[in-house]
Amino acid sequence: MKILVTVKRVPDPxxxxxxxxxxxxxxxxxLKWVVNPFDEIAVEEGLRIxxxxxxxxxxxxxxxxxxxxxxxxxxxxxxxxxxxxxxADGDLDPLAVAKVLxxxxxxxxxxxxxxxxxxxxxxxxxxxxxLAELLGWPQATFAxxxxxxxxxxxxxxxxxxxxxxxxxxxxxxxxxxxxLRLNExxxxxxxxxxxxxxxxxxxxxxxxxxxxxxxxxKTIKLELPPKRQAGRKVESVQELVxxxxxxxxxI
Length: 251
Fold this sequence. Notes:
CATH class: Alpha Beta
CATH superfamily: HUPs
Number of domains: 1
Helix content: 25-40%
CATH topology: Rossmann fold
CATH architecture: 3-Layer(aba) Sandwich
Largest sheet: 9 strands, mixed
Number of strands: 11
Number of helices: 6
Structural class: alpha/beta
Order of helices and strands: EEEHEHEHEHEEEEHEH
Strand content: 25-35%
């Protein structure tokens, strides 16, 4: 079985993010970058499936500038077999990402595509769904458990929904997006880090794919939320009611 897993380079959530001078995004200078946490969970799930199915291959794919090699090497150090980097300057919107990934899928022909349910930098949560539609593949989003069928031609996916849990059976190939509780990613071992340096990492210029990446979404303005005022104590219920009515005007 061939498992294709997406890996996105995102700012470390522990970083002190600042808005750029144009007010359209984050200032990228002096930021620490990491693998998108949901993608890291997807990589771990791919590796667990590989460990259960002898002869399987886990291939990573990322879209971005050459600095994204660092995050792909992280996935290779965890145990993935090889990686593909589609070299592109600037950020792509979800539809463009889906179109690029469609080309990679058509080239790699995986049996299963694993993605994080969303990237923590934009929280768009739609690239996986768009990609499944473009491919005409079944999809199972927000997966908290994935089990392959005994014949290797289907998968049972338990997903988190508003009312609890839902289990779907989808034929393969399929798109599955990973939720937080799917697993706990492993740490890369020192031998794994050494081996990752020698594993194949193929670069493909995005222009070679012939994909229309013109943005459909434009960020007009990005701003931090206003600072909240400090809390206030009142002496009695009567005073609380008065403040809510006369000052806050919520009753």
